[in-house]
C-alpha cells in the first residue's frame, strides 16, 4: 500500500493544488463581491454559476478526454481555469464573474475527472477503500487550507487572484510529469432519475437537499461572515471551521448509519441542523467566538448527508447498479448546489446575512420530515442487503469507480 501511495503522490499533489485554489477562490469572490457592493442576489447567481458549470463539465468532459487524451485535457482545463482566475481581477462586474465562474466550474469538473481516472487506474480490490479515503481527506484538507490563504493579501487588491492563478497552474506540473500509464477511455454510466427515485426516494431527496444546503454554505459562508462583521482573518477561520467540522464528522456519522437505520441518522442530523438554523437565523445575539463553533456544527451536520444518502440508495441497488446510481445522485447533488446559493440570497436579501441559516433550516427540516415519513412507508433493509458506508468525494462519477462497494467480484468474494 505504501508503494501505491508513493506512486500516486504526483496525482494527490495535483488534486491538493486544484482544491487549494478552489477553496481560496470561492471565499475570495464572495468577499470581493461584498466590497464591490454587488447586490446580494447577483452574488448568489455568481456563486451558483460555478456549480452549474461543474454539472455541465461533468457531462461534457468525458467526451473531451476520450478525444484528446488525459494530459492534454488536464493542460487545457488548467490553463483556462488559471486565466479565468486572473480575469476576475480585471473584469470586476457581476455578468463577467457569472460567466467566468461558469467556465471555472466546467474546468474543475474536467480536472477532477482526469485526476480520478488516473487514481482509479491505480486502485485494486485491496487498496480501493484506502485510496478513496486518502483522496477525500486530501481534497477537503486542501480546501480548508485555502481559506487561510485569504490572510496573505488584501481582498480589495489583485494579489490573491494572482495567487489562485499560480496555484492552479502549479497543479499542472505533477500531472504533466507523471509516469503513471494513461487510463482507459471513460464510459459514463448513469441511472434514469425516475427509476432511481423509485428505488430510493430518500437517497434522491437527501442528495438534492445536501446540494441545496451545502452549496449555499460553500458559496455564501464568507458572505455571511462578512455580513455579521467578521474581518478577513475571522472569515477565513469561520470557513475553515465549517469545512473541518464536516471532515471530522463524515466517518463517525457514516459508520453510525451502518448500525442504525440511515434514514434515522439523516433525519436526526437534519432536524438538529434545522434547530441550529432557527436559533442563528432568529437574530439572537451570539458572541463572535461562538460563531466559529456554529460554523463547525453546521459543517458537521450538513456535509455528511450526501455520503449517507449515497449509502442509503445503494442499500437498495444491485452491485452492478452502484456506479450508475451514484453518478446520477451526484448530478442531483450538483443541481441542488447550483440552485442553493441563489435561493439563499433571496432570503438574505430580505432579512440579512442570517438568512443563510434560515435557508439551511428550511431545507434541513424538509429533508428530516421526508426521511421520517419514509420510515413509515418502507422497512429498513436487512444487514445482509446493506452496504458499508464509505467516504465519497463530491467531485465526479469516476470517484465511484474507486469505491470498494462498486466491485462486484470483490463483493461476491466477501459474501
What this model shows, in words?
This protein has 415 residues and is an all-alpha fold. It has a single domain, classed as MFS general substrate transporter like domains (Growth Hormone, Chain: A, Up-down Bundle), CATH 1.20.1250.20. The chain contains 17 helices and no strands. α2 (9-35) runs antiparallel to α7 (159-176). The longest helix is centred in the C-terminal third of the chain and has 30 residues, at 322-351.
The assigned CATH architecture is Up-down Bundle
CATH superfamily name? Answer: MFS general substrate transporter like domains
Please state the average pLDDT score. 87
What is the global morphology? globular
Largest sheet descriptor = none
Distance between the termini: 24 Å
Rg result: 20 Å
Return the CATH class: Mainly Alpha
State the share of residues found in helices, binned by percent.
Answer: over 70%
What proportion strand? under 5%
Which sequence of SSEs, written as H and E, runs from N to C?
A: HHHHHHHHHHHHHHHHH
| Individual helix count | 17
> Structural class of the secondary elements?
mainly alpha
How many strands appear in the DSSP assignment? 0
Which stretches are poorly predicted, pLDDT < 50 over at least 5 residues?
409-415
Number of domains: 1
- CATH topology value: Growth Hormone, Chain: A
Amino acid at each position: 500500500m505504501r508503494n501505491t501511495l508513493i506512486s500516486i503522490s504526483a496525482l494527490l499533489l495535483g488534486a491538493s493544488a486544484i482544491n487549494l485554489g478552489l477553496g481560496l477562490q470561492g471565499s475570495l469572490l464572495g468577499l470581493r463581491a461584498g466590497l464591490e457592493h454587488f447586490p446580494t442576489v447577483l452574488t448568489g447567481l455568481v456563486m451558483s454559476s460555478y456549480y452549474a458549470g461543474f454539472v455541465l463539465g461533468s457531462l461534457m468532459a468525458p467526451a473531451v478526454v476520450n478525444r484528446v487524451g488525459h494530459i492534454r485535457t488536464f493542460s487545457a482545463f488548467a490553463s483556462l481555469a488559471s486565466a479565468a482566475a486572473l480575469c476576475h481581477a480585471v473584469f470586476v462586474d457581476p455578468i463577467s464573474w457569472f460567466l467566468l465562474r461558469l467556465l471555472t466550474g466546467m474546468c474543475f469538473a474536467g480536472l477532477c475527472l482526469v485526476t480520478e481516472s488516473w487514481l482509479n487506474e491505480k486502485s485494486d480490490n485491496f487498496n480501493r477503500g484506502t485510496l478513496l479515503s486518502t483522496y477525500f481527506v486530501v481534497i477537503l484538507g486542501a480546501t480548508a487550507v485555502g481559506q487561510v490563504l485569504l490572510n496573505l493579501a488584501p481582498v480589495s487588491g489583485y494579489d490573491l487572484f494572482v495567487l489562485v492563478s499560480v496555484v492552479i497552474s502549479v497543479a499542472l506540473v505533477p500531472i504533466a510529469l507523471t509516469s503513471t500509464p494513461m487510463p482507459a477511455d471513460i464510459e459514463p454510466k448513469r441511472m434514469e432519475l425516475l427509476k432511481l427515485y423509485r428505488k430510493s426516494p430518500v437517497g434522491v431527496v437527501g442528495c438534492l437537499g445536501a446540494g441545496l444546503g451545502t452549496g449555499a454554505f460553500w458559496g455564501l459562508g464568507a458572505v455571511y461572515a462578512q455580513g455579521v462583521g467578521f474581518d478577513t482573518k475571522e472569515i477565513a477561520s469561520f470557513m475553515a471551521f465549517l469545512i473541518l467540522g464536516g471532515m471530522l464528522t463524515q466517518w463517525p456519522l457514516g459508520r453510525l448509519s451502518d448500525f442504525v437505520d440511515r434514514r434515522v441518522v439523516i433525519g436526526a442530523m437534519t432536524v438538529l441542523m434545522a434547530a441550529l438554523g432557527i436559533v442563528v437565523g432568529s437574530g439572537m445575539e451570539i458572541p463572535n467566538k461562538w460563531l466559529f463553533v456554529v460554523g463547525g456544527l453546521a459543517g458537521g451536520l450538513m456535509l455528511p448527508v450526501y455520503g449517507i444518502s449515497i449509502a442509503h440508495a445503494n442499500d437498495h441497488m444491485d452491485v452492478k447498479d452502484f456506479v450508475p446510481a451514484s453518478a446520477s445522485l451526484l448530478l442531483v447533488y450538483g443541481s441542488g448546489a447550483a440552485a442553493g446559493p441563489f435561493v439563499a440570497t433571496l432570503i438574505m436579501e430580505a432579512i440579512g446575512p442570517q438568512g443563510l441559516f434560515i435557508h439551511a433550516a428550511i431545507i434541513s427540516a424538509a429533508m428530516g420530515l421526508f426521511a421520517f415519513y419514509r420510515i413509515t412507508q418502507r422497512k429498513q433493509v436487512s444487514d445482509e442487503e446493506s452496504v458499508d458506508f464509505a467516504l465519497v468525494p463530491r467531485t465526479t462519477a469516476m470517484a465511484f469507480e474507486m469505491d470498494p462497494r462498486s466491485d462486484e467480484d470483490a463483493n461476491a468474494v466477501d459474501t
